[in-house]
């Protein structure tokens, strides 16, 4: 099983065009996801099609990833009455637990884990930002504005920040169609951030108003954008994908558990039920499993197809928020989600045209 997972997680060189954008909420699945929505990740070494999976299998894995990410988000939404740092700490643990034996297997078989560690300190710092501002802030957002509004705000800000940071840090071009998509996504974020787009969940313990919850969701997306950009830079300068994922998960596990021991009182610890622990653990397990499923999908399907399948998380989050948690359906919410989809379609169409031209 470890060998099977490793074969799909370790990127292989391909003749495909470089710079393919992959929407996938937590590039590292280290909890920097949060399992919340998709993360814009540009693979430094795009992978080629894997005939052993097939198109139908690839589509199934892509849909499974979207469902699992949504399941992780639902579990996080169900944990809004728990300390956000504790929720994020528990969610980060499965990545370390699952990847540690994988890295040990790779090391024992003399697989390349890194060619240079020069980027490791910088990546660890950014991973810390991703864990605290990305995961913890997203949890605060869920407790303030709910699931249906938090996911599109985070995703929209992530894509906007990814384009800007890609230009500033990596020198990547921002084309006219990308600018149009950015403007549409900015409009979506502004609409979803309006006071009438959502309301504070009745079971939340977050003592913050809705406007601050929207700000937390946007900050979470910006942190994920920074994390994704530096991760791409680190992978292109010597760190392997499994190692970056493990580093991020380990940074999150150590730092978040440390802050949790300080911020969570004895009464809060004793008040936690077995069901609450299970819900937090499920969020982490679903998040990591979703990343693995997405990796399989990318072996068999074009990036655009995986993007569109994975973007269905926005709709799934809205449906889950309304049906499972009774979140209100408002004009601002529907408009903001529609604008988010429009921005995603513009980005997908840009990539589709570029791929057709390259042929």
UniProtKB/TrEMBL annotation:
Origin superkingdom? Bacteria
The answer, when asked if DNA repair is one of the entry's keywords, is no
The Swiss-Prot or TrEMBL record describes its family as follows:
Belongs to the EamA transporter family.
Regions crossing the membrane = 52-72, 84-108, 120-141, 147-169, 176-194, 206-227, 239-259, 279-298, 305-325, 331-349
- Report the residue ranges that make up the EamA domain in this protein: 212-347
UniProt keyword Transmembrane helix present: yes
Record keywords: Membrane, Transmembrane, Transmembrane helix
What name does UniProt use for this protein? EamA-like transporter family protein
Q: What broad taxonomic lineage does this protein's source fall under?
A: Bacteria, Pseudomonadati, Planctomycetota, Planctomycetia, Planctomycetales
Which organism encodes this protein?
Answer: Crateriforma conspicua
Task: Describe its membrane topology.
Answer: Multi-pass membrane protein
Where in the cell?
Membrane
- The stretch of residues making up the signal peptide is none
Q: Which InterPro entries match?
A: AA-Vitamin_Transporters, EamA_dom, EmrE-like
PANTHER family per the UniProt record, alphabetical: EAMA DOMAIN-CONTAINING PROTEIN (PTHR32322:SF2), INNER MEMBRANE TRANSPORTER (PTHR32322)
Please tell me where this protein is predominantly located.
membrane
Database matches in SUPFAM superfamilies: Multidrug resistance efflux transporter EmrE (SSF103481)
* GO cellular component terms attached to this protein's record: membrane
């Amino acid at each position: 099983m470890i060998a099977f997972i490793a074969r799909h997680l370790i990127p292989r060189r391909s003749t495909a065009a470089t710079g393919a954008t992959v929407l996938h909420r937590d590039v590292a699945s280290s909890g920097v996801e949060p399992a919340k929505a998709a993360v814009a990740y540009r693979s430094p070494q795009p992978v080629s099609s894997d005939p052993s999976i097939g198109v139908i299998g690839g589509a199934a894995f892509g849909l499974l990833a979207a469902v699992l990410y949504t399941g992780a988000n639902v579990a996080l939404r169900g944990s809004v009455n728990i300390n956000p740092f504790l929720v994020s700490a528990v969610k980060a643990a499965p990545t370390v637990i699952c990847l540690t034996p994988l890295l040990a297997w790779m090391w024992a078989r003399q697989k390349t884990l890194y060619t240079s560690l020069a980027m490791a300190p910088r990546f660890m710092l950014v991973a810390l930002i991703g864990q605290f501002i990305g995961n913890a802030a997203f949890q605060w957002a869920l407790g303030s504005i709910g699931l249906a509004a938090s996911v599109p705000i985070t995703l929209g800000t992530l894509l906007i920040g990814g384009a800007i940071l890609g230009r500033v840090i990596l020198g990547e071009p921002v084309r006219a169609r990308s600018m149009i998509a950015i403007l549409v996504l900015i409009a979506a974020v502004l609409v979803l951030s309006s006071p009438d787009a959502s309301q504070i969940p009745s079971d939340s313990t977050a003592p913050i108003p809705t406007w601050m919850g929207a700000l937390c969701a946007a900050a979470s997306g910006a942190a994920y954008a920074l994390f994704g950009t530096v991760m791409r830079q680190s992978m292109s300068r010597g760190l392997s994908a499994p190692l970056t994922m493990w580093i991020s998960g380990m940074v999150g596990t150590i730092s978040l558990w440390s802050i949790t021991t300080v911020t969570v009182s004895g009464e809060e610890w004793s008040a936690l039920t077995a069901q609450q622990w299970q819900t937090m653990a499920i969020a982490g397990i679903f998040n990591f499993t979703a990343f693995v499923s997405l990796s399989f999908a990318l072996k068999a399907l074009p990036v655009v197809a995986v993007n569109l399948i994975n973007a269905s998380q926005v709709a799934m989050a809205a449906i889950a928020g309304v049906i499972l948690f009774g979140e209100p359906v408002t004009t601002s919410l529907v408009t903001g989600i529609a604008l988010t989809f429009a921005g995603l379609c513009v980005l997908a169409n840009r990539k589709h045209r570029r791929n057709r031209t390259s042929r």
